[in-house]
Design a protein that fits this description.
Blueprint: H1 3-16, E1 20-22, E2 34-36, H2 38-57, E3 62-65, H3 74-79, H4 81-84, E4 86-91, E5 98-100, H5 101-127, H6 133-139, H7 141-163, H8 166-175, E6 192-195, E7 199-202, E8 210-213, H9 219-224, H10 226-232, E9 239-248, E10 263-273, H11 278-294, E11 303-307, E12 317-325, E13 328-339, H12 341-350, E14 356-358, E15 363-365, E16 368-375, H13 376-387, E17 388-394, E18 400-406, E19 417-421, H14 428-439, E20 445-447, H15 453-463, E21 467-471, H16 473-478, E22 480-485, E23 491-495, H17 499-507, H18 510-514
Parallel strand pairs: 3-9, 19-20, 19-21
Antiparallel strand pairs: 1-2, 4-5, 4-6, 7-8, 9-10, 10-16, 11-12, 12-13, 13-16, 14-15, 17-18, 21-22, 22-23
Keywords: Aminoacyl-tRNA synthetase, ATP-binding, Cytoplasm, Ligase, Nucleotide-binding, Protein biosynthesis
GO molecular function, one term: ATP binding
Main location: cytoplasm
C-alpha cells in the first residue's frame, strides 16, 4: 500500500473509532485544530503518564511544575520570541496559497531521499539475501547521482538558513524548479519573515488593556520559576523541572493531520547543570530519550537522530529524535543544550539575580540548561501510526478476511479489557457486570453485548484493547472465562480470580520502565 494511502486510512480510522475529530466540525471545522475523542483522550493521557512518570518518578532530582499560559509580555522579549520567533513565508501568486520556504526545500530534499530508497528497495527484491546495501549505496550510479543532488542542495540550504538569507531561499526554490503543489507554477513572491505568536489583550477596558501573548512554548514558564522551585525544593545542581502544557503557534502551513497544529501540547523538561558539564549531560539525555521511545517496541529502525544544521539563537547543540511516519522521517522530540541564555536574559530583563551557589566549588553562577521537548500530539500520531495494522486472517468458511488492529503497547491502550456476555440472557450480562465491578478500580474496562462475538472482537481490535473476556454458560457453573489476546488472537480458559494478575502483568507501566535501564 502506498504510504500516502496508508496515512489517509489512518486519519479516517482515528475519526471513525473515536480517537481524533476535526474541531467544530458541525461548522465545517477550524483549520489545523483537532479534538480528541473518547479513546483518543485516554491514549493521550496514557502517553503523558508514561512521560511524566519516567521523568518525575524515575529521577529523584526531577520535579514537576504547571505554569500559566499567560505570562508577563516582557518574558517574550527576554526570550527572544518577539524579535526572533519567525518562519520564512512565501506565497504562490497563482494559487494564492502560503507556504514555509524552508518546508518547500525540505520536501525537495525528501524527494531525493525517496528516490535513493526506491533504488535500494528494487535492488533488495532483485538480489535477495545476497544484497549488500552499503556497497550498493557506494557504487550505484543513480544512488550516487541523487546523493550528490541532495548534498549540493542541503549545503546551500543550510547556509541560507543559518544566515537567514531570504533572497537566496527564494533563489533556491527557483533554481531547483520547486513548484506550488496546487497550481504547479513557480510564480512566487519574495520570502519574508512571519512571527508565529498569537497576540491578545488583557484588561477590563479597551483603553486599559495590555498586549499579551499565548505562550508559544512551555519552557519559559519553567525558567521564570527556576528560583521558586530551586529554593522551596532545596534542589541541588544538577536537577530538572518537568512540565506538560498547552502552547500556541500561528503556523503558516499547518498540515499532516495533528503533526503540525496551531494549538498543541508539549512535554518539556529543563535540566539545570554546572557550566562546562553541559555537553556530557546533553549526550546522556540523548541516550535516555531515545531509549524511552524505543521501549515502546515499534522497531528500532524507525528511529534516528537528526543533528541540527541551524542552531536556535539560544543553543550550542541540538538534535532531534525522528520517527519514520507514513510521510517520511520527521521530528518527534528535540534535545537542546540551551546554554545559560534563558536564565541570563530573564536576570537582565527582570533585574532579579538568578544564580545558584555551588558549595562544591564555592562559586555562584547562572546554570546551563539541557532541554528535552516532545510534542504530545506528534507522539500520539507516532504511536497510532506505528500501531495501525491491517492483517489477513482466516475468516468464516475458510475464506480470507482482513482485520484492522491497533497494536498499541498495553500500558498505553485506551481500554485495557472488554467483558462480553455470550448472550444477553441466562444471567450472563449480570455475571459480566460483576467481573467489571471487581476490575474497574484498577483498569479502564468496557462492557459490550451488541453483535456477534466476532464483530465485537473486531471492534475492540480497532481501538487496541489488549484483552477480551467472554462470559458464557460455563462461567456460571465454574467461574471461568475465555480470555482472548489481541495480537495473537489466542484464547485460553482462566479462572475469574486470575484475571487481575494476568491483565496487570501486561498493562503495567513497569514493563516499559524496566526497558529504560
Amino acid at each position: 500500500m502506498a504510504q500516502e494511502d496508508l496515512f489517509k486510512k489512518l486519519i479516517a480510522h482515528c475519526k471513525e473509532y473515536g480517537f481524533v475529530f476535526p474541531s467544530s466540525e458541525i461548522y465545517d471545522g477550524l483549520a489545523a485544530v483537532y479534538d480528541y475523542g473518547q479513546y483518543g483522550v485516554e491514549l493521550k493521557n496514557n502517553i503523558k503518564k508514561y512521560w511524566w512518570d519516567s521523568m518525575v518518578l524515575l529521577h529523584e532530582n526531577v520535579v514537576g511544575l504547571d505554569s500559566a499560559i499567560f505570562m508577563h509580555p516582557t518574558t517574550w522579549k527576554a526570550s527572544g520570541h518577539v524579535d526572533a520567533f519567525n518562519d520564512p513565508l512565501i506565497d504562490n501568486k497563482d494559487s494564492k496559497k502560503r507556504y514555509r520556504a524552508d518546508v518547500l526545500i525540505e520536501d525537495q530534499l525528501a524527494k531525493y531521499e525517496a528516490k535513493i530508497d526506491k533504488e535500494i528497495e528494487k535492488a533488495k527484491k532483485k538480489f535477495g539475501d545476497s544484497f549488500d546495501e552499503a556497497k550498493f549505496r557506494e557504487t550505484n550510479p543513480r544512488v550516487l547521482a541523487n546523493l550528490e543532488k541532495w548534498k549540493e542542495l542541503h549545503e546551500r540550504f543550510s547556509k541560507s538558513m543559518n544566515e537567514m538569507d531570504l533572497v537566496d531561499l527564494k533563489q533556491i526554490i527557483i533554481d531547483y524548479k520547486i513548484v506550488c503543489p496546487i497550481s504547479g507554477t513557480s510564480n512566487w513572491t519574495d520570502v519574508r519573515q512571519f512571527n508565529l505568536m498569537f497576540a491578545t489583550e488583557m484588561g477590563s477596558t479597551a483603553d486599559g488593556a495590555s498586549k499579551v501573548y499565548l505562550r508559544p512554548e512551555t519552557a519559559q514558564g519553567i525558567f521564570v520559576n527556576y528560583l521558586n522551585v530551586q529554593k522551596t525544593g532545596r534542589m541541588k545542581i544538577p536537577f530538572g523541572i518537568a512540565q506538560i502544557g498547552k502552547a500556541f503557534r500561528n503556523e503558516i502551513v499547518a498540515r499532516q493531520f495533528i503533526f503540525r497544529m496551531r494549538e498543541f501540547e508539549q512535554m518539556e523538561m529543563q535540566y539545570f547543570v554546572r557550566p562546562g558539564s553541559e555537553m556530557e549531560w546533553f549526550e546522556k539525555w540523548k541516550a535516555t530519550r531515545m531509549s524511552w521511545h524505543k521501549a515502546l517496541g515499534f522497531d528500532d529502525s524507525n528511529y534516528r537522530f537528526h543533528e541540527h544544521e541551524k542552531l536556535a539563537h539560544y543553543a550550542n547543540a541540538a538534535v532531534d529524535v525522528e520517527y519514520k511516519f507514513p510521510f517520511g522521517f520527521k521530528e518527534v522530540e528535540g534535545i537542546h543544550s540551551r546554554t545559560n541564555f534563558d536564565l541570563s536574559q530573564h536576570q537582565e530583563f527582570s533585574g532579579k539575580k538568578i544564580q545558584y551557589f555551588d558549595p562544591e566549588i564555592n562559586e555562584s553562577y547562572v546554570p546551563y540548561v539541557i532541554e528535552t521537548s516532545i510534542g504530545v500530539d506528534r507522539m500520539f500520531l507516532q504511536v497510532v501510526s506505528a500501531a495501525y495494522c491491517e492483517e489477513e486472517i482466516e475468516g468464516a468458511n475458510g475464506k480470507k478476511d482482513t482485520r484492522v488492529v491497533m497494536k498499541l503497547p498495553p500500558a498505553l491502550a485506551p481500554i485495557k479489557l472488554t467483558v462480553m456476555p455470550l448472550v444477553k440472557k441466562d444471567g450472563l450480562p449480570e455475571k459480566a457486570r460483576a467481573i467489571i465491578d471487581t476490575l474497574k478500580f484498577e483498569f479502564n474496562c468496557q462492557y459490550d453485548e451488541k453483535d456477534s462475538i466476532g464483530k465485537r472482537y473486531r471492534r475492540q481490535d480497532a481501538i487496541g484493547t489488549p484483552f477480551c473476556i467472554t462470559v458464557d454458560h460455563q462461567t456460571v457453573e465454574d467461574n471461568t472465562v475465555t480470555v482472548r489476546y489481541r495480537d495473537t488472537m489466542k484464547q485460553e480458559r482462566v479462572a475469574i480470580g486470575e484475571l487481575r494478575n494476568i491483565i496487570h502483568d501486561q498493562v503495567s507501566y513497569k514493563n516499559l520502565f524496566e526497558k529504560l535501564g
